[in-house]
Every structure is written in structure tokens, then in C-alpha cells.
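re the bet — no i am not wrong, look at it urself. input seq straight from the record:
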Amino acid sequence: MSYAAQHLAQEPARTEVDALPGWTLLEFGTPWCPHCIGAQPLIEQALAARPEVRHIKVEDGAGKPLGRSYRIKLWPSLVLLRDGQEVARVVRPTSQEAIGNLWAASPQA
């Protein structure tokens, strides 16, 4: 599992995400968002050190049910899941440290 450069063509249902085993990093954003574009090298670098983490890049926006179910308000928002349960999140990361804090804040990371 590794960094996903492209957003999914269709977002998964919340029930599918809740059933994912192991570690998953949900990334909510858009391909045109300057904050999202700026965060990509940081996200890619963080995931390079964590091959066990599944990366799901979800294009978010008004009326998108998955983002609303996680109460996403700003992009990019990174939500770290373990066995489908949220353990940490970071909004608009601007440093490697901010993304690293996802794992520091999560139990047994």
C-alpha cells in the first residue's frame, strides 16, 4: 500500500470505510485546492515510511456523503483510521511534523 496520487473516481460508502482492516489514511480535498496541492509532498513522504498504511484520496465537496459523515470542513483533512475507527486527524498540514503527529496521537501506531 502506498501514496495515492489521484482522487478516487467515486468515493467509497461509509460502511465500506468502517469495515477496512488495519491502518487507513483518508485524505479529503480536491485536485484544484492550493492547500491540498501544497501538502502532497508531505503526505507522500509520510506514507513512504509507513507501507502498512492504505491511502484513500477522496475528492470532497458539498453534498459528498463521506466527507460530511466525518464532518470535514477544510481541505486537506487527513483522517487516520485503524480497523475503520478514527484514531487521529490533522487539518491543513504544512509540515512533516504535523502529519507525524497523526501517528504520535494514535494508540499502538
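see?? The chain has a mean pLDDT of 93. told u. also The two ends are 16 Å apart (CA to CA). so pay up
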